[in-house]
Amino acid sequence: MSKEPCKEPDVASVLEIEETASLSDKSLDAEYKRKERRVLRKIEIEETASLSDKSLDVEYKRKERRVLRKIDMRILSLTAIAYMLNHIDRTNLANARIMNTDVPGASMVEQLKLHGDRFGHIITAYYAAYIIFELPSNFLLKCFGPAAHLSRIIIGWGIVTTCSAAVQSYEGMILNRIALAIAESGFFPGVIYYYTFYYNDDERAFRIALFVASSSLSGAFSGLLATACSYLNGVGHPALSGWRWLNIVEGIPTILLGILVYFLLPDYPETAKFLTPEEREIAVRRLGASASKATNEPFKWSSILNVLKSWDFYFFALLWQFLAMGTSAFSFFAPTIINNLDPNFEGVRAQLLSIPPSFLAFVLTITSGYLSDKARNRPAFIMAGIVLVSGGYLILAVDKKVVGPRLLAVFMLALANMSIIPLAAYRLSTQKLGGKNSDSTSVAFTSSATVALANVSGLTAPAILDSGLRFDYKCYIFLAFFIVAAVQTLFAWWWFGSGVEALPGPEAKEKSLC
């Protein structure tokens, strides 16, 4: 069988095949180039959009910071000044008690016959009324609006303070203090609740610290005012005692501030007239879903019952009561404690010596609030304050002769007392009592009820200080209260955690709290 010879490929055919392949490669290359250009254009568009989004985000953050500054300037400044005057008017009896004691018949103690434990009875009457009328305070705030409610409180206690100058007897002073308690009850828990309408959880601790710090600054101003008014003793027609002038000088500015608060303090972010429409929208949008809002239902009794059934409600009320023991004792009796440190510390000198601790307490309170916001750990700072206060009472109990250490102890009490309260107040304002169903009603009730229950310390502290016990025994009693508070704080630290938002038990394992 013969084989056919192999034919050589035609040159023309080879060239045709190569040309076809070349055209195909060029077509594929052109298609690839087109796809590459599309991808590059898409990347460029996405990068441009991303830069635009970042630019918009930076601009929004800038506007948000501006809104927050405006809120601080309006709300924080007004409420802080009001609380400073509140603390001055509430504790002015501590200064009035030792005014003009060197002038026969000129002191408040002699004129009102406040001998023995009568001074403590006046403080007790004040707190008894304060506790009762503080409970419904935040309900009234929600009903009438923050501006009307808070200004009514400020004007009311200003009028009562001014009228204190006309008191002529021990019984009259008791009635006056009861009226003062009724007038000003609800201011502190009302402001704490009010802040939840404007500030997020991680912003409130520092703001509450600034708010409370104004009360420690009041210690410096009240000492200066008492010193100045002591020189007005016998001035006027008819001649008024120095302690009466003190009440007049402190009461009138409070009334004027209350009038300003009514016109300047906004109710809610949605209706704040000092903000532009865009700023109002930002003020509302920046708050989390858990924030209190003006549009919430007025009050739900089911939420209150949930709070009352929560064990942590009573736990934190008791904790704050133990912490407030030392604060109440020092606030009302600081000039007297200083007066008793040394026979040379009398009258004007005791008033002036109460100024430096108060001023330093102002600085420390702001610092602790700021650092606790940064560290997001409230219990650690509360524990530090407890250690300082406990050390102060221990020094006063042990050292009975050396003035230097005893003055140091007074500084420790003043510095730590004021730094503890804002952190405890912040803790309550974020406490999710009633569990996940916690709402603005829970926050409102918690703020007022826990503060009211904690103010039982205002009944017990004066009773202890005015008792017949030796001074060192009194200090040991207050030291014991702070030891119990330390144990409670450590338990709360373990159970609730140390973050911002407060949820109980197992939920704290997932999200850091306190």
Automatic annotation (TrEMBL):
It is a multi-pass membrane protein. InterPro entries: MFS (IPR011701), MFS_dom (IPR020846), MFS_trans_sf (IPR036259). The keyword Transmembrane applies. GO terms for cellular component: membrane. The keyword Hydrolase does not apply. One of its GO terms (molecular function) is transmembrane transporter activity. Residues 75-500 form the Major facilitator superfamily (MFS) profile domain. Keywords: Membrane, Transmembrane, Transmembrane helix, Transport. Gene3D superfamilies: MFS general substrate transporter like domains. Pfam families: MFS_1 (PF07690). The chain crosses the membrane at residues 119-141, 153-170, 176-196, 208-233, 245-265, 313-338, 350-371, 380-398, 404-426, 475-496. Its main location: membrane. It is found in: Membrane. This is Major facilitator superfamily (MFS) profile domain-containing protein. It comes from Wallemia hederae.
